[in-house]
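Hi all, posting the design record for the shared folder.

TITLE: backbone redesign
STEP: 1 of 1
STRUCTURE INPUT:
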């Protein structure tokens, strides 16, 4: 592996371990198949079996593991007595296959299951209570029903959909292995720590924060939330502008794809690894000095944009956007540093170049506006009295006091 690959793989595994995730491995299933086939599976094995079968996996290898997991699922009926004894429930509450209430009788309001080795579909039904349900191997679909709380559910292996439902609270769920779509009434996501797919709470106006979430597997759609909170890893591209505007990411450490910063981004976290391109083009960040930053591909900055803003009294001031981003030695870039017009720059260029603000610009802008700019202060302090006199004379030659040429 290359230095780049070694670094990002090491960082990824470190963070996954710290937040309680791991990658799926065939061996976690084959060992249980062997044990069941030998008749050696006991009640004492149930906690370890549940931890593997309903594992908190960040990366799933569907091609190599699905067939093996299917083989293990065929043996669940054999170990139902041990599972039932451990969970202190009837064997009938351990369901192998899908559990659907879409065509249930009107008076069926409660789910009678503890573990479902398949999907649970309550959409467009009269179900209002998930009962003692704790584990759903595949998807939990409650769209269009009366459930207000996910109750005792801890684990959802694939997708979770609560659109057009009465759901207000995701209580005990810690892991969602696919996409999570929150309906408009959701105001609390409880203990949810990991969403392996896309987390979409764009309709949930009453949800104020991401609470315990530490991992997002896909680019999120956060709607009214603009702070990533406790999220440490986004294992996909992260777009912080436009419809998915994200202003703050205080605990973010790893982005698995490109990262596009937005107009409201002023700061980076203390440590950040971006396994892709990093675009400063539309952000307010001009210097990276308090962040240990590693970028796997290219860094892009915006070409400087200037606009003269006229005032009613005839004066004007200069709006300056884009421009160079300065790096200290705490930044490592495996690719190139590129202006969005395609011009490449060396690290020396980036470290030394300043926004080209001329003394005339600063004097025209007025002392109060000039004082707000670090670059302006530096320029003014370096001028000699003779230079200032010359600049003033140039301005008098160019402009009269009415603001007209």
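Okay, here is what came back for every position:
SEQUENCE:
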């Amino acid at each position: 592996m290359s230095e780049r690959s070694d670094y990002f793989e090491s960082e990824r595994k470190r963070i996954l371990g710290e937040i309680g995730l791991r990658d799926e491995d065939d061996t976690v299933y084959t060992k249980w198949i062997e044990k069941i086939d030998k008749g050696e599976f006991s009640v004492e094995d149930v906690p370890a079996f549940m931890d593997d079968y309903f594992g908190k996996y960040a990366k799933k290898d569907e091609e190599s593991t699905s067939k093996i997991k299917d083989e293990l699922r065929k043996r669940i009926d054999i170990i139902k007595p041990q599972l039932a004894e451990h969970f202190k429930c009837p064997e009938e509450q351990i369901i192998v296959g899908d559990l659907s209430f879409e065509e249930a009788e009107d008076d069926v309001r409660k789910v009678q299951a503890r573990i479902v080795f398949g999907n649970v579909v309550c959409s467009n039904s009269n179900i209002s209570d998930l009962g003692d349900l704790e584990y759903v191997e595949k998807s939990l679909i409650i769209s269009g029903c009366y459930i207000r709380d996910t109750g005792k559910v801890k684990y959802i292996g694939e997708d979770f959909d609560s659109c057009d439902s009465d759901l207000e609270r995701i209580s005990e769920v810690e892991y969602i292995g696919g996409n999570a779509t929150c309906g408009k009434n959701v105001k609390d996501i409880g203990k949810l720590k990991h969403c392996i797919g896309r987390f979409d709470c764009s309709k949930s106006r009453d949800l104020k924060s991401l609470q315990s979430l530490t991992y997002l597997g896909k680019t999120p759609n956060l709607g009214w939330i603009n702070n990533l909170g406790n999220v440490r890893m986004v294992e996909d591209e992260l777009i912080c502008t436009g419809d998915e505007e994200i202003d703050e990411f205080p605990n973010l450490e790893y982005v698995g794809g490109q990262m596009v910063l937005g107009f409201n981004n002023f700061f980076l976290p203390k440590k950040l690894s971006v396994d892709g391109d990093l675009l400063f083009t539309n952000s307010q960040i001009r210097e990276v000095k308090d962040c240990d930053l590693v970028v796997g591909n290219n860094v892009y900055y915006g070409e400087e944009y200037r606009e003269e803003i006229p005032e009613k009294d005839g004066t004007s001031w200069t709006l300056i956007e884009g421009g160079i981003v300065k790096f200290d030695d705490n930044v490592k870039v495996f690719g190139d540093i590129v202006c969005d017009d395609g011009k490449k720059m060396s690290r020396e260029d980036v470290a030394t170049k300043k926004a080209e603000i001329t003394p005339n610009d600063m004097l025209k802008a007025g002392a109060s506006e000039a004082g707000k700019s670090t670059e302006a202060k530096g320029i003014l302090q370096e001028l000699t009295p003779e230079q200032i006199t010359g600049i003033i004379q140039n301005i008098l030659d160019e402009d009269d006091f009415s603001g007209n040429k």
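COMMENT: DSSP finds ten helices and 28 strands in the chain.
Let me know if anyone wants the other runs.
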